[in-house]
Amino acid sequence: MVISKNMESLVAGSSVIRKLFEEGLQMAQVVGKENVYDFSLGNPASPVPDEVKAAINDVLANNSEAYVHGYMKNAGFDETREAVANHLNKSFAMDYDKDDIIMTVGAAGAMNCIFRAMLNTDDEVIAFAPFFGEYKNYAANFGGKLVVVPASLPDFDLNLDELENKITEKTKCIIVNNPNNPSGRIYPKETIEKLNEIIVKAEEKVGHPIYVLCDEPYRELAYDNTPVPYIPSIIKNSIYIYSYSKTLSLPGERIGYLALSKEADGYSELIGALVVANRCLGYVNAPSLFQLVIGRCQDVGVDLDFYDRNRKLLYNKLTELGFEVVKPEGAFYLLVKSPFEDENEFVELGKKQHIIMVSTTTFGCPGYVRIAYCVDYKMIERSISAFERLAIECNIR
Amino acid sequence: MVISKNMESLVAGSSVIRKLFEEGLQMAQVVGKENVYDFSLGNPASPVPDEVKAAINDVLANNSEAYVHGYMKNAGFDETREAVANHLNKSFAMDYDKDDIIMTVGAAGAMNCIFRAMLNTDDEVIAFAPFFGEYKNYAANFGGKLVVVPASLPDFDLNLDELENKITEKTKCIIVNNPNNPSGRIYPKETIEKLNEIIVKAEEKVGHPIYVLCDEPYRELAYDNTPVPYIPSIIKNSIYIYSYSKTLSLPGERIGYLALSKEADGYSELIGALVVANRCLGYVNAPSLFQLVIGRCQDVGVDLDFYDRNRKLLYNKLTELGFEVVKPEGAFYLLVKSPFEDENEFVELGKKQHIIMVSTTTFGCPGYVRIAYCVDYKMIERSISAFERLAIECNIR
Predict the structure, then answer these.
(1) pTM score, two decimals?
(2) Chain B window 44-83: which residues touch A at a Cβ cutoff of 8 Å?
(3) What is the assigned CATH class of domain B50-295?
């Protein structure tokens, strides 16, 4: 074995989602791209907003290339961090300044920085199922352990009663992903307030801060005007994590940030360590051109209708066909309950119809499949007859 | 302490170079930018080549935005990896194909991926002094330990006799940075051949492969036609690491790659783990636009004259002034021997003249200062009178 011990299992269980995505590409080569209904990946199909394209041109045309493509502080360009702080202050009545913002290589980069800065070997990170499976690997990179609070079914709310039992002296942080990938659930203000009470009590008991990592790349993807509470305004020890991947359709560019309020316990120590982590994990800084671009696009919204149309079509059609569907309130994922005990059987039957769906086992919540509907509307239309055939194969029709 | 134990020392000894860079920015606000001679950072001042600018426009104009800014395989775009493989094959008579190339977030990202994939707790990574101080942190991120082979003085060659004593059963890899930062030394083919002999013998003894990490962001910066040997063509178990930061003046964009030859021991296992590491360290993929850009710029060279002019001016003037200067063969750094036993005294005296130089203590080789001459020629011209005053202050003139 030339690879490290804790890498072995990771490679063995390597991202099911990524594997399906690559399988979909292969399938497309055989049967044609238009005949594959790939719902595997959160790769947003909504066009990059015109404002972003204009900002790319503006940054390239009106700044010295040494500025645009050069090194800056490890935390990012001052102008970008100031724009982000202003945006958060305006949107959520917060009081950030630029020093509270660190530009990161997406939300995944932010989370790795946080774990690098915080975790000792065997420290614990709590996640609520269903959760993005990579959280486990992010913690494992630095010897940390992901502790899972089982899903609250069938409502997919935060399972707060179970949370209390999971907090130990080793607990360093708790991840809350709102709106949730993969359930599409939006946790309301009341739930977050209850979460706060539990954490404040627990912090007193364990004698150290427990940080809530607010993983919110889907914040703007909230349908039917459902409000998404801003957790750092409710829970003091919060680290807000954002990515432009989903809302501005820039996932490949790896641009996001984290924000830490000065009121959080251990602020100075933590923010210093986070900047160092950003450097020494080899990110060095978030990609420079896109830092400047998103600095100019703070008020650019997501094309919510693009995804809402998809959501409605899929939810209505799949329900009509007899599938049991969890209606998403936010994000761009939809869960379908597997008609079989082992949802992998359902995934395989789907593949026969060239429908690519992801089992929720890696999300810590078996029994469902995830459909990422961040795709072209026409692909969903084309897929309906395939879902019809799938419903027949599953004997639910 | 809210931060992890092994982060504490890291924050305490946080990058001296970065601190100086930020000190320089502050100094500029007080005395004016043109009166600060900041030689701290390897931030290349040579203009971004026109071919790169044309490639940015070409990629943006002639590809779908979903392709340019979207997710691709974690290892990178096939077209880019193919272009890189072809370039290496043509340049060094190698036999790479695209699957042997992983696009990374700069060379620092590549190195973190390698350490994540390879290192168990307490595994050892060997570096030859003087070395880029961040290597130590990259290894420490994953519980690894940097073992330093002391510098060979005054020639700054690889200290191969000492290497033999440092290899143990815990040794997983050896970093060779050629041309070297900070010494500017280029290790010739004969040295690499001798290194190969030592490694082959050691591998037999320890019973596992020892990989040479060829950290070569400065490869094209070789003056006076000094040849830079391509290590993977000499040492079988090599991982080649490259970054476009220095040669194409794109350090902020975070774009580089690693290449692993199929002939290397454990190839399949290792390349698989490296792709997973790229994903789970939160890089996910190297920034997408710049992957496509550099794929189109494989034959774009560095403006060598830009740096050679700087090298000559500084070397000649500082020598004239009585400083003891190590003449660089490559890269864009120059070492000056400190006139005082503690080179920090020299650094501080420099600051008084608004000259920002970096102590080599963090490079594992005290007694010198590093001058990064990847700056504007005019700044060097302006700095000469400040160096004159510094020479007087140091009593060497």
Answers:
(1) 0.96
(2) 44-45, 47-48, 53, 56, 60, 65-66, 68-74
(3) alpha beta
